Amino acid sequence: MPKEEGDEHGTLYCPECRQEVDNPLVCGDCAAVICRQCGTPLEKVDELGIG
């Protein structure tokens, strides 16, 4: 069974949209994980100390 993108990266948070992101966009060239709504690089919630 294939993994969903959100499972691979853990819970992600967009600092621009100020919400958790469960369907991130992953760049095929550099593997950056970005918000589908605004294009901001996402951060892991456990690294922010808010989750």
Any overview of this molecule?
There is one protein chain. With 51 residues, the protein is of the alpha+beta class. It has one domain. Helices cover 18% and strands 24% of the residues. A three-stranded antiparallel sheet has the order 2-1-5. A two-stranded antiparallel sheet has the order 3-4.
N-to-C series of helices and strands? HEEEEEH
Strand content: 15-25%
Helix content: 10-25%
In the sheet with the most strands, the strands line up as 2-1-5
The total count of helices amounts to 2
Query: What gyration radius follows from the Cα positions, in whole Å?
Result: 11 Å
Uncertain runs: 1-7
A few lines on this structure:
By secondary structure, the protein is α+β, with helices and mostly antiparallel strands.
What is the fold's blueprint, element by element?
Elements: H1 5-9, E1 12-14, E2 19-21, E3 25-26, E4 33-34, E5 43-44, H2 45-48
State the main characteristics.
single chain; 51 residues; alpha+beta; two-stranded antiparallel sheet; 5 strands; 24% strand; disordered N terminus
